[in-house]
Fold each of these.
Amino acid sequence: MAAHNVAEIQDEIGILEARLRDARKRLENVQLTDTQGAVDRDSATTNNAAASSPNIAPGLGSHTHFLLLLSDSQLPLGSFAFSSGLESYLAHTPPRTASFSSSFLPSSISSMASTTLPFVLAAHRSPQELAELDDQLDAAIVCTVGRRASVAQGRALLGIWERSFRGTVTGDGQVLKDFSTLLRESQGQDVPLVSAHLAPLFGVICALVGMSLRQTAYVFMLSHVKALVSAAVRASMFGPYQAQKVLASAQVQRLIDVVIDREWNTAVEDAGQATPMMDLWIGRHEVLYSRIFNS
Amino acid sequence: MGSPFPTSISKVGEGHIVVSPLPSGGNGLESIRYQYPLKLISPTPSVHQKSVLVFLLSYGGGLVGGDHINLDVDVRAGALLSVVTQGHTKIFKSASPDIVTSQNLNVRVQDDASLCLLPDPVQPFADSVYTQKQIFTVTPTSTLCFLDWVTQGRTARGENWSFVSWKGCNEVWLAGHSPDAKPRLLVRDTVLLSSPDSVVLGRPLRDAMHQMAVFGTLILRGPKVQRLADFFMAEFAALPRLGARDFRTIEDQAKEDGQLSELERWRAQRIRMERAQGILWSAAHVRSCVIVKLGAMTVEGGREWVGAMLSKEGSVEEHFGEEALMCVK
């Protein structure tokens, strides 16, 4: 276990150092051709310039750029059409006992992490296993509504990759190309070869744009929390300032870190439901009389 | 055919059941072997018995901390097997959290063969540490009907999801076309309940279980339970909408209730029972299986509900016989 961790950390350091060297080189090239312009545009930062250049703070790099894009609530995944069981939870819980922060939120974070996060991590570590991971996750989501939500967002993310990201990202996107082909071939099959669930695709795409494993896990979990909080606002549980307060809270930061640590070494074969009530709430979303969300 | 008692095999906690069709018709036990603490009993089959019946037992009625059960089951082509228990499977406390009590079940159901596994629920006591893994390998023509459920513990002693951890994994694999071909995973249903994990997240496990006393999963696949699977899906679709209101007058309600079919009357009564007993359930099609998830605020309510659904539809009794249902009645 310890040896495995050491090797993994060393690997990560190697990758990060390579990326840093690469970024420095690119920065130098840019500065050689465009030093004067950059200084003019960015004169405000000249005083805090980094060691590599006397005048300019180092660029954030392409992976930070994509981190911001993938964590943006405007990423057109349609995440906000889903409440991940919140709407159903409210319908099943007496109003006075329903609570977001002390009950639903930790349950939902724990459930999302225990069922899905191992697939995000595994796909980031081994993108070439995307199809196999997608198939295994498809076997493990045992609820119609949950499957619908996962596949709808996964397909949207694959669409974003194909139509928007692929042209810019230098990484090898062959695995996603093959996956799309497999997805087309699977249509109409009773047990499809692949279904395009969100988690493994998210892991692969984050790896391709250069995000670290920890960043990927954090963005995945934070996006889930943002979608929940947004659903809570629209379900009139609280208003937008309270929503930001929840998002900014130490509780949310701690919960995300706790579940990422918990699942860091969980094999996808050992992923499972830590909050069985969640399966019932999400599954019974279909029997709500009126619905504002798709899950 | 020497001793009337099943022969034992050497490894602690291991067992093997092989069931095959008899040349004269009906089903027979080809072999049944087990070793302490596992105990298997199969009453001598009667002429009219539709499936071989095996009781899955343990000495002392439960598993002591650190016990490991490994049971292999082969249902040969065309045979039918029902497995039941005699009372809850008690999981006694572990002396320390790293002493895990485990049960593994590895079942192969061949072509046109059928397995019905409807046991009593597992009852993990306070401070128990338990893992179970049930692997079912089926073919396109085999039938599978199994229930896996767990209770909050001994309520009389104030237990309410008071164990350290409970992990249950159910996998259904579709066997490859040839013996060497890789099987395909159809369903992997895993539940991971852990008190320490729950506490770290800021609420005790019992709070996360929302007053449920029992949690269960029923998985159905194959031709002999196809009608049953459709029945669950249809009943789920027919559940009254949550938050809907009935705008009919009392007279109209009474009048329309009088015109209900037998099934509709039964359904209305069952739904009243679901409300009274705090029963929540859902059903979903997942890769050629139907998966029913169930939570109930009392163990008996949950048992009554499962029994009512299975009895009303009738497939289990028709194919496996009444005995297969003894733990859910």
Note: The longest helix of chain A spans residues 2-41.
Amino acid sequence: MGLKSWSLRKSPWIFHLSTGSCNNCDIELLDCLTPKFDVERFGIVLVGSIRHADALIVTGAVTRQAAPKLKYLWEQMPKPGLVVALGTCGCSSGIFRDSYNIIGPVDKIIPVDVYVPGCPPKPEAIISGIVKGLAKL
Amino acid sequence: MEFSLKPLLYFLVFPGFAFTAIVGLLSSWVDRKVSAKVQWRVGPPWYQNFADIIKLLHKEIIVPQGSGFTGFLFAPLLGLAGATLVSTIIWVINLNPDSGFVGDLIVVLYLLAFPSLGVIIGGSASRNPLGGLGASREMKLILAYELPFIIAVFTAVLKVGSILLGDIIGYQQVSGIMLRHPSCIIAFLVALICAQAKLTLVPFDIPEAEQELIAGPFTEYSGAPLAIFKLTRAMMLFILPVFLITLFWGGMNFHGWQILASCLKYLAILVFIILVKNTNPRLRIDQAMKFMWGPMTILAIGGMILAVVGL
């Protein structure tokens, strides 16, 4: 295990992007930052700028309006980086699959490393998903 | 003049860059840990900031299209150079007050402004509206806090009658610490609050207010330049309290049991700064300017008048 992968796994900074979610997954993601789960124990910090991020967390089925922005943000993320599709909608479009304004799940636009299903996923599942994804890097 | 490696060693290893960076990163960890305790959390492990810096050094560096390339990449180095120089000067004088090392109070005051200058240049060069706004707020903040800070610092100079840092430490070794004078207690409090603004910690984190400006001047930075900015901030978190201790609290002393006292002095100031950070809301920039040019400056001038009277 090199210094590079050690440091990446010990300090993943996450950037949260909602591409048309119902706000359910977003609130579960914020739950991870509360004192009960306290992801700062693992060095996970929520950052506001995509330039600082190591993990792009996408919630929601991708709408027609959000798709180009999602692609642009992924291109602007400094590599190596991780993409996490959070929630059933992000993984497979969920109940919005046949909707006229949905392009499709996140992996139709950008490559996804980790899928965390659930409606919404539990905070434990989110933490476990990010940790498993970082082990791959 | 013969060539000697000693000054280089001073700048790069012991009192200068490496030492200050390591202790600074550890103090940033103390900051995060104490903040976590205040918020009833566990907080990160001790190596967290080292992991952050190493990770950022390995990441891709992105220079945004249309930004000022030279200014964008040069700005973090300017701040780092300033922090390194000022830490070297302060430490060499603390370790050996009689040394003929150049650098008096005015040089130190100028160099302490360098990291903020780097932030302004970087934010303006990044061609991001949030970065530009952050840089402009940083500029206003400098204008606000420098006036009371300099008046407070010169209260100590007035008391000693010398502008050399070595003389100030020597005076305190002979006739007790500065903090026993009422005038210097006032000056110390003013300087402490100005140090909070210099570090842009919470009541004065107006330039990088994350809820409104994302990260302010640092928005467009990624990879190594961001790591250098973080490192500079960590070094300032270490060196500013040490500077205040040097001026008002007898300096850092490393003979026998004095080591423990010096560390405790530093930790006391650090924890005070962190607690202020965790228990206050952010001010608006106009409120900060009013606060600094109003009550703080009046208090600092009052302290100076007391010093002139002889208290």
Note: Chain B touches chain A at residues 32, 36, 39-45, 47-48, 51-52, 54-55, 58-62, 210, 214-215, 218-223, 226 (CB under 8 Å).
